[in-house]
Design goal:
single chain; alpha+beta; two-stranded antiparallel sheet
């Protein structure tokens, strides 16, 4: 799975078509949109194929603009959404060759945690009752209150 789009507080973010949308269009002999190419300077994150609109396109909401502007009225909701993705999962970090990779029993779950990382809410470590993440480079620790297993 790839993280391509999301809806936060009723606002849809991201360009392109999801895998489900593409499959539906193919099954129904409908034209399938071409992939939206990345803009120069776009971040590359495993399992994330998220494309914001061109910054000059004011007709579509830009997730990058919202999350980088604390004064934006939608900022807190977007922050909370990605912070929740970075905290609420069963993914484990694995260190190999000096790099950290996320190991998950479910690829959907890994894609969601990588999406949080893509937007600077980075999961670092899980202990019995503690989860450590960095939010925009600032380390934070959260107490685990309860654990519900992931189910797609």
């Amino acid at each position: 799975m790839e993280f391509r789009k999301c809806s936060i507080q009723g606002i849809s973010y991201g360009l392109g078509t999801t895998e489900i949308g593409r499959a539906y269009r193919e099954r129904n002999n409908m034209p399938v949109e071409a992939e939206v190419p990345p803009l120069p300077g776009d971040k590359q994150t495993p399992n994330v194929n998220f494309r914001d609109p061109d910054p000059s396109d004011r007709s579509r909401p830009s997730l990058s603009k919202v999350i980088s502007d604390p004064g934006n009225p939608r900022h807190q909701g977007v922050h909370d959404f990605f912070l929740s993705l970075s905290l609420n999962h069963e993914v484990l970090p694995e260190k190999r060759d000096g790099q950290t990779f996320l190991s998950a029993s479910n690829p959907d779950e890994a894609a969601l945690v990588y999406a949080a990382q893509h937007f600077d809410r980075r999961f670092h470590e899980r202990k019995m009752d503690d989860v450590r993440v960095s939010v925009e480079g600032v380390e934070q620790s959260f107490t685990v209150l309860h654990n519900l297993e992931f189910s797609s």
